[in-house]
Design brief:
Residues 79-92 have a biased composition (Basic and acidic residues). With 92 residues, the protein is mostly helical. It is built from one helix and no strands. The longest helix has 65 residues, at 2-66. It is rod-shaped, with a radius of gyration of 34 Å. The termini are far apart.
């Protein structure tokens, strides 16, 4: 019986070793994927910062060339200044 117990122990150890190796490989793969994603986000953040700086530089240039403050953006002029909200009538 000792021979069979020794064989079972060796097989159990081999199975556990294989399981741990597979688990470590999966963890490494997932870590690499996450690391790649973080690097992509960092690069995107840097590009956004560069774009914001370029926009600010253009605004500054436009303001300096116009001799005054830069003109408002189209988004800020889209509201009609004459439009007044309707007020409920108090004649009821």
């Amino acid at each position: 019986m000792d021979g069979q117990d020794s064989g079972d122990t060796k097989q159990s150890t081999a199975d556990m070793t294989q399981f741990v190796q597979t688990l470590l490989q999966q963890m490494q793969s997932r870590f690499q994927t996450m690391s790649d994603s973080i690097n992509a986000l960092d690069e995107m953040g840097e590009r956004i910062n560069e774009l914001e700086q370029s926009i600010n530089d253009l605004r500054t240039e436009m303001g300096a060339e116009g001799g005054g403050s830069p003109s408002p953006s189209p988004l800020s002029t889209s509201k009609k200044p004459d439009a007044k909200p309707e007020e409920p009538s108090s004649a009821e």
